[in-house]
From TrEMBL:
It comes from Dictyocaulus viviparus. It comes from the Eukaryota. Residues 96-178 form the Dicer partner-binding domain. CDD domains: Dicer_PBD. This is Dicer partner-binding domain-containing protein. It holds the Pfam family Dicer_PBD. InterPro entries: Dicer_PBD (IPR048513).
Length: 287
């Protein structure tokens, strides 16, 4: 920039620079104008902002948007309240313990923290029944880790502690969850937003409608275990209630980028492709 500024004004090159949106989490909105002015001074430039709103309004789709309200979910009123407190205590203990040095030890805290965090997320978003299912998965996963022969005794003991915690969660939930075999029995343990979702799905039952109104929907969630358990929940409801047999549900885990270096990346990409293919095939079959 200094070299350009030393050139005569008539010989200074004019450079066009393009960038992504300037509105992001890195710059507070109240300081945006100040930073743009400083950038103009430093680069001896002029900043012009552009908007896609005109193009979007002209060429974009105009879907009908409906906001569905639901009440807040209070775990204290169900059997999940105690589980919530226990998991929070265990997670804090696991995070604060200084028993392991990641530079020298195989650190068992990561899978245990993940087990607690994922179970908590599922408990808060999908309810105790889904948390019961996830606790069984993590109980088996942590048990597998304890069987690895190269681990130190201290590491195995810590993993066994995590496995025991998930066993306690499972056994606390099991007496009420195991006996559920109907949607009515499940509803008291579901967040209101999940109940509202089921009500919306029931509206599209082709047997109860005089006019055909096909449904193809995508439900976005913020964690892969929430997506998995919501899919399991819908499949069980379809099995229990014949009026929901028209639902064909599946889930896909977020994957982006072109790197296929790891087996996990390849597996996620393959699952995405398989699910997208099945959705297209199902839509083509019913059109």
């Amino acid at each position: 920039m200094d070299r350009i500024m030393r050139e005569p004004k008539d010989f200074q090159p004019r450079i066009l620079g393009l960038t992504a949106s300037l509105i992001n989490d890195k710059t507070p909105p109240n300081r945006l104008e100040e930073k743009l002015s400083k950038l103009e001074r430093v680069l001896n430039s002029a900043i012009e902002t552009a908007s896609d709103l005109v193009a979007v309004s002209k060429y974009g789709s105009r879907p009908s948007e409906i906001v569905v309200s639901s009440s807040s979910y209070e775990l204290s009123g169900s059997c999940g309240g105690d589980i919530l407190q226990i998991l929070e205590i265990w997670r804090k203990f696991c995070s604060s313990t200084q028993e392991f040095d990641p530079n020298f030890d195989i650190d068992p805290r990561k899978p245990i923290q993940e087990a607690f965090s994922r179970t908590l997320a599922v408990l808060r978003q999908v309810g105790p029944w889904a948390a019961w299912k996830v606790s069984q998965m993590w109980e088996k996963e942590l048990h597998k880790l304890t069987r690895q022969s190269f681990l130190q005794e201290k590491t195995v003991d810590f993993l066994l502690m995590g496995e025991t915690c998930m066993t306690i969660v499972r056994k606390m939930l099991e007496p009420k969850m195991r006996s559920i075999r109907s949607l009515e029995g499940l509803k008291p343990y579901l967040p209101n937003k999940v109940v509202r979702l089921i009500e919306i799905l029931s509206y599209f039952n082709p047997e109860s409608r005089t006019t055909q109104s096909p449904l193809c929907g995508i439900i976005f969630v913020d964690q892969r275990y929430v997506a998995y358990t919501l899919n399991v929940l819908l499949k069980h409801i379809c099995r229990w209630e014949s009026r929901f047999k028209f639902i064909q549900s599946d889930f896909v885990i977020g994957f982006s980028g072109g790197s296929f270096a790891s087996d996990d990346s390849q597996g996620l990409h393959k699952r995405q492709a398989d699910v997208c293919y099945n959705i297209k095939a199902f839509i083509s079959l019913h059109n």
